[in-house]
Amino acid sequence: MCEKVAYLFNLDTDTSYTAGMLHDIGRLALMWACPLEYDSLSLKAQKPGFDLLRSERSVFEIDHCQAGRWILENWDFPEELRHVASMHHNLPGPGASGLVRCVHVGWQIADLIGFSVLNRSERGDIGAITAVLPPNAADAIIGQLADLSEHVALKINAIECSLM
Q1: What is the third-level CATH fold of 2-163?
Q2: Residue ranges of the domains in the chain?
């Protein structure tokens, strides 16, 4: 998704793709380290008002954003990618980098069109997404939602087919 919306932020598509792929690396680490606990946490995510970061901190004493930043620091990744991992759940303010804004919008759109990591029944809010976009970009995104959904579905199907 980040690769597809990178142009809205005048960003390199490869960098945006990489940031999108790495932004939840802390979640993968928590899932790998404590699979039963994370699975239990994921089931609770279906409840209205669920706060993922607070729940992760209560179970693991760290949330996936903090864990992701720690991993990327220890692997000597660039600061910009570390920042994306740690800040992607925060609503980007006016001074936020384009890459943080891109990843925030990318995962919010993924949730909106039904590709939430936690498979939540709650969907994203288009108003919250468009508030983060550059001026005049909202119409471009709204007009592309069906195409973006199809693009993600095709990529997922291609991955699933290659694993068989």
Answers
A1: Hypothetical protein af1432 (1.10.3210)
A2: 2-163
Alpha-carbon distances, residue 151 vs 25, 133, 135, 145, 157 (angstroms): 22, 20, 25, 10, 10
What confidence tens digit (pLDDT) does each residue in 35-69 have? 999 999 988 887 878 889 999 999 999 999 999 99
Q: Could you tell me if 99 and 85 are in contact, meaning their C-beta atoms sit under 8 angstroms apart?
A: no
Q: What is the pLDDT of residues 120-156, one digit of tens each?
A: 555 667 777 878 888 777 777 777 777 777 777 777 7
Q: How far apart are CA 99 and CA 35, in angstroms?
A: 30
- State how far the Cα of 158 lies from the Cα of 21, in Å rounded to an integer: 16
Report how far residue 29's alpha carbon sits from residue 56's, in angstroms, rounded to the nearest whole number: 12
